């Protein structure tokens, strides 16, 4: 790799032209892809500017410009395009901007990769790597500003699906994946900015449904509805929620549909069955294949409840 002395203005002007080309490609404008020669010239320009002797070693300036490139692009292009939209259109734009941002990071970090190998390696304690810099820009400048609106729109769609409407599950998965990915290996963003609110929304939804169903439905119908709700919530996890949410979601639904109404459900079951002999292993298996009625059985018949519950669970495991 031949060395060529490069002044700052000359070098940055050439790099900026490459960045402008990249932005146009990412935005889907008419622009040919980078060929290998263009890529190598950009890389070599940055490499040479980083190995020059002081005061012409421009490593720090290039590192700052790398970050500023993302900040300028987000301010001028990304954030306005997300903020101006609402509802499902906003979610679609949010996903598109995130995917484009990751493309920007991938290409720019290649052009500037000598900074990662040399400058950042020597200053790691105070200088995050290029990939982290790019992600932090999106997290601080886009995600922090719009995640509340994004969450609201997602919860609206989940609510519509719970009421039987068809929704774009693939879109929801892409959005929720951003809550996970933006944590950069940690689940804090997903748990604090989405999951906690989703569980509150779930509580409100099912406590409201329970207050209606407990008066309208027979014990059998109520328990079958509860079981179906559990099945659908597990289905949501498998299609677009993070797997870590399943246990919390299931416990939430069981609590608000069954646990808080256990006394009324026991009374309803007895008034409909007419005698305690109704409580047979066959009936337990039928209504409790997913052990949703276990709480009721354990509350009602402490002496024999645990045996019946175990039999029901054994039967469910063998299905």
From TrEMBL:
It comes from the Eukaryota. Pfam families: Cullin (PF00888). GO terms for molecular function: ubiquitin protein ligase binding. One of its GO terms (cellular component) is cullin-RING ubiquitin ligase complex. One of its GO terms (biological process) is ubiquitin-dependent protein catabolic process. Residues 21-289 form the Cullin N-terminal domain. InterPro entries: Cullin (IPR045093), Cullin_N (IPR001373), Cullin_repeat-like_dom_sf (IPR016159). Belongs to the cullin family. This is Cullin N-terminal domain-containing protein. It comes from Prunus persica.
């Amino acid at each position: 790799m031949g060395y060529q002395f490069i002044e700052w203005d000359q070098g940055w002007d050439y790099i900026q032209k490459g960045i402008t080309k990249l932005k146009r490609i990412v935005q889907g404008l008419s622009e040919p892809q980078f060929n290998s020669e263009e890529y190598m010239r950009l890389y070599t320009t940055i490499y040479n500017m980083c190995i020059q002797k002081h005061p012409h070693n421009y490593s720090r300036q290039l590192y700052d410009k790398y970050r500023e490139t993302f900040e300028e692009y987000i301010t001028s292009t990304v954030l306005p395009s997300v903020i101006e939209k609402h509802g499902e259109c906003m979610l679609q734009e949010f996903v598109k901007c995130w995917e484009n941002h990751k493309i920007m990071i991938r290409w720019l970090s290649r052009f500037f990769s000598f900074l990662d190998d040399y400058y950042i390696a020597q200053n790691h304690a105070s200088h995050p790597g290029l990939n982290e810099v790019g992600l932090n820009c999106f997290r601080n400048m886009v995600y922090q500003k719009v995640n509340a609106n994004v969450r609201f729109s997602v919860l609206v769609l989940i609510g519509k699906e719970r009421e039987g409407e068809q929704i774009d599950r693939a879109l929801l998965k892409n959005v929720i994946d951003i809550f996970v990915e933006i944590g950069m290996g940690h689940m804090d963003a997903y748990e604090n900015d989405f999951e906690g609110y989703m569980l509150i929304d779930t509580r409100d939804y099912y406590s409201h449904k329970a207050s209606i169903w407990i008066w309208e439905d027979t014990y059998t119908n109520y328990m079958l509805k509860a079981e179906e709700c559990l099945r659908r919530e597990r289905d949501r996890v498998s299609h677009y929620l993070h797997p870590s949410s399943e246990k919390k979601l299931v416990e939430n639904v069981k609590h608000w549909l069954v646990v808080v109404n256990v006394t009324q459900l026991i009374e309803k079951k007895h008034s409909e069955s007419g005698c305690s002999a109704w409580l047979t292993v066959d009936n337990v298996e039928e209504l409790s294949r997913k052990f949703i009625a276990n709480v009721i059985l354990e509350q009602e018949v402490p002496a024999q409840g645990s045996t019946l519950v175990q039999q029901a669970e054994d039967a469910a495991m063998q299905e």
